[in-house]
């Protein structure tokens, strides 16, 4: 027996290729949407990986530092460092803002990192060019995705920084590239007011008789100094000593330090389950709509292709073709359409992914799931056409 | 001749029921022997198509018997179970429009029937080619139906009707679109094939050009058949 579906496809291949490519573009969008979601999850994991921490200690009862704002005193890390099981503890600040160079600006997450050795938690784990920050002020290490180059002068708030090193795939959970600066600068950036505001505040403080007492010289200066510095950080990144369980150390920090501490799995839950949950639902909705649209398109195309062959189907039935053979012909055509669509979609997604501003991660399991979904959709979509074909009366071939 | 050809006795067909019932066939008796080509003629609405559909086993008669070879197909409301296989193996169809399958080439249009019956592809194509040769269209064996002339298409359609060597061929206005010479050529082919394969051929027609060639003619009028002798004019 010859393949009726195959012969029909070869005969009207233009129709199949044309509609297959159209369907393929739709599938390409669908695969890319899935890739955007995977990219978001991956950004979150990369963020956690690259922070080099086992525990995140944040302000009590917050989901900080990424999903909610959190602030801790910058001396809290000392007492954490003294706890059993803690190998390293380092302050860190995070601030998402526009970083300027010349007259352009780039959205970035500015990370203030504690001074210390290169394996201090929070430090970029590797550089693709240049060196780590060595001075305690006005140096920066930037992710290549910012577009900055070694030696560039960048402006964060009112201060200028020199780019001394470049990293790769250091991104926030939003996919914004990171710019690392010394901790003190990071604290200042979060707090720094403009000159007018500083003058206003000084004046107000000086006018307050309880703070500006003639009998206590130096009090006013001390108050102003404390007002214009920022003793807070967003989190303390903790690395646990080998042989200690991260959740036990986290538990003792919670109990004795009255702070909230998250382990790596808990942090992942917060990022994936809370921070990107809404985006994930949004993407899920899009996937559902795209699936319905694809199904409608396949159903419509297969229906029209079958309608065009009604006469031939009547003749085939008259000369004794089994219903099964006719149904298989239509089903196979739907599947072939799905296959063309999937191949075109996969190629489109693969080539389009690098052009997206955010990270698009195409993983093979998604492709396989997508392929299976498309086949199922095509099979279901052909049901209407098959039903119609089976209702064709062989007597119609004889006519009136 | 009993047990050969096709025979129908007292065939009736009623469409619908109650007030709107139409008795399309009231009493049809007909017998066509192997090797015989008969004409079936009648005015519009007389029941020709209905009779052809009953003979072709795509509508079930309300009453009467139909016997094909020595097999009873219909008997007063009873029918054999697999009409589809019967159509495939025992009945050949040739239509006014050739109704070839547009996505199969000439050979496979003809070879499709034996293939549907489970004959291996190469053997089915051998048989198709032999018939195409007999019908003088072998040189177009690899062409698609849309590339053939009307007469060539009709000959391919005849080959398809013959390929399973059915005991009966039903031809519905097979010469309508053809000029006189080609119409007569088709009738000659049908006569040759009837002789060669011992086939009973029933030709429904209005075509004045070919009516004189039949030796026997069934007139159908108002749902009933009347047999009469034809002129049986020689074609060459
Ligand atoms: N499906 C049907 N339902 C009801 N009545 C029908 C049906 N098919 C045919 N008829 C009626 O049966 C009668 C015979 O119809 P039939 O089609 O057999 O005529 P015909 O001889 O083929 O006519 P023509 O030469 O015009 O094709 C007509 O009165 C027609 O209206
Ligand atoms: Mg008719």
Q: Would you summarize the structure shown here?
A:
The complex is a heterodimer of chains A (400) and B (236). Chain A is α+β, with helices and mostly antiparallel strands.
Most extensive interface, chain pair and sizes: A-B, 26 and 31 residues
Ligands, ions, cofactors: adenosine-5'-triphosphate, magnesium ion
Oligomer: heterodimer
Helix content of chain B: 25-40%
Alpha plus pi helix count of chain B: 6
| N-to-C CA distance of chain A | 32 Å
CATH fold label of chain B: Rossmann fold
Taken in chain order, the helices and strands of chain B follow as EEEHEEEHEHHHEHEEE
Element string of chain A (H = helix, E = strand): HHEEHEEEEEEEHHHEEHEHHHHH
Beta-strand content of chain B: 25-35%
What is the top-level CATH class of chain B? Alpha Beta
Would you count the extended β strands of chain A for me? 12
Biggest pleated sheet of chain B:
6 strands, mixed
CATH H-level superfamily of chain B: P-loop containing nucleotide triphosphate hydrolases
Gyration radius over CA of chain B: 18 Å
Structure, described:
The complex is a heterodimer of chains A (400) and B (236). Chain A has 400 residues and is α+β, with helices and mostly antiparallel strands. Chain A folds into 3 domains: 2-44 and 277-397, no CATH class; 60-192 and 234-258, no CATH class; 193-229, no CATH class. Chain A has 12 helices and 12 strands. Chain A has helices spanning 4-11, 13-51, 76-81, 183-191, 195-207, 219-227, 246-257, 264-275, 277-307, 310-318, 323-352, 364-391; strands at 55-58, 72-73, 86-101, 104-113, 129-130, 139-143, 153-156, 159-167, 178-182, 232-233, 235-240, 260-263. In chain A, strands 1, 3, 4, 5, 6, 7, 8, 9, 11 and 12 form a 10-stranded mixed sheet that branches. The radius of gyration of chain A is 31 Å and the shape is elongated. The model of chain A has no long low-confidence stretch (mean pLDDT 89). Chain B is of the alpha/beta class. Chain B has a single domain, classed as 3-Layer(aba) Sandwich (Rossmann fold). In chain B, the strands form 2 sheets. In chain B, strands 7-8-9-3-10-11 form a 6-stranded mixed sheet. In chain B, strands 2-1-4-5-6 form a 5-stranded antiparallel sheet, with helices on one face. In chain B, β4 and β5 (71-75) form a beta hairpin. In chain B, α3 packs across α4, α3 (106-116) packs parallel to α5 (150-162) and α5 runs parallel beside α6. Chain B is globular. The model of chain B has no long low-confidence stretch (mean pLDDT 89). The A-B interface holds A 1-2, 4, 7-8, 10-12, 311-312, 315-322, 325, 393-395, 397-400 and B 49, 52-53, 56, 58-59, 84-89, 93, 95-96, 99, 101-104, 108, 112-113, 115-118, 121, 144, 160, 172.
